[in-house]
Design brief:
The protein is mainly alpha-helical. It has a domain of 30 residues. It contains three helices and no strands. It is rod-shaped, with a radius of gyration of 37 Å. The N and C termini lie far apart (121 Å). The mean pLDDT is 75.
Length: 96
């Protein structure tokens, strides 16, 4: 019997040829294959947009609150709020 360790697999008899890996060199694992259930669930999740409007409203509220805090902080440090309320009170007392 010839030494099969040096004989290329294509020249070996079919009974003694080693099993070659699939193209790409990686054997497929049965758990890694997507099943109909996982494919259906992933497809449904990709199409499901429930809660998207709520998330958008939440983002808008967060941005609006951030801008309001920035404006209030600026106005408090510059004295604009005090001046504004003083002007309002002066006009109201001027009408009386």
């Amino acid at each position: 019997m010839p030494d099969l360790s040096t004989t290329p697999a294509l020249l070996m008899p079919a009974s003694s040829a080693p099993e070659l890996p699939p193209p790409g060199g990686v054997e497929e694992h049965p758990v890694a294959k997507p099943t109909a259930v996982t494919t259906r669930l992933l497809g449904r999740a990709a199409r499901d947009d429930r809660g998207q409007a709520t998330a958008e409203y939440a983002l808008v509220i967060i941005v609006a609150a951030t801008i309001a805090v920035a404006v209030i902080t600026w106005a408090a440090q510059s004295g604009a709020i005090t001046g504004f309320f003083d002007a309002v009170v002066e006009r109201l007392t001027g009408f009386l």
